[in-house]
Amino acid sequence: MLARHADCDVAVIGLVGERGRELREFIEDDLGPAGLGRSVVICATSDAAPLMRRDAALAAMAVAEHFRDEGKRVLLMMDSVTRFAMALREIGLSAGEPPATKGFPPSVFAELPRLLERAGPGPEGCAGSITGLFTVLVEGDDHDEPVADAVRGILDGHVVLDRRIGEGGRYPAVDVLRSLSRTVPGCLEPPERTVLERARRILSLHRDMADMVRLGAYRAGSDPAVDEAVRLAPLIEDVLRQGKDEKGSVAGAFAALAAAMAAPA
């Protein structure tokens, strides 16, 4: 979806440690001619040597930098940083480094910022930029595991995908309340910020009260804010749904969100 519909000049896709069958399906079916027409894909399957998997990530970043230096807006998507770190772990351990944090040698956490910090705006005088989306596979849903914790501290934000939301049938399965962007305050207009903050408050209150409402421990009319959250949260959830081939816009998303929260009682 991002490669085909994002407002960018070039999409660079680094697939590190993926299964070979999934790679072919992604390129031929998901990306398709429309996506391939403006994309560069760098692949290293899970059975490749760790040096190849490491270099696939580095090559994807180098390709993105090439287009950025030409003044293009580049969307770099890398799946995944976790497998890049696992390749670095194999290389470090084979070179005799001692395992430190959960089996990862210290060099892994030195290499991560060297890769991730290369995304962003170009040098002074360059109009190009790299918007990087780096996926992290958390171990056992532990969002504080070493790689996730290190990446979260380097990047400008994180989007959390929750398995339970996907099991409930809502895609993309983004957990809005656990996701964060440090660049949002500088990107939104005041009316958009107001709508966003109110929507987050409604979703947060609904999550806090969901169990009580489900068990019948809350009586409607006891708290107007809770009543509003129970009424509007499902409408906000509907706004968060997006079909696989559906193209959206920032203005359209905020308009839909505002309309959902303005629904009459």
What can you see in these coordinates?
With 265 residues, this protein is an alpha/beta fold. The chain folds into two domains: 1-155, Rossmann fold; 190-261, Up-down Bundle (Substrate Binding Domain Of Dnak, Chain:A, Domain 2). The protein is built from eleven helices and seven strands. The strands form two sheets. Strands 2-1-3-5-4 form a five-stranded mixed β-sheet, with helices on both faces. Strands 6-7 form a two-stranded antiparallel ribbon. Helix 3 (50-69) packs across helix 4 and helix 5 runs parallel beside helix 6. It starts with a helix and ends with a helix.
At a glance:
InterPro entries: ATPase_a/bsu_AS, ATPase_alpha/beta_chains, ATPase_F1/V1/A1_a/bsu_nucl-bd, P-loop_NTPase, T3SS_ATPase_C. The chain has 265 residues and is an alpha/beta fold.
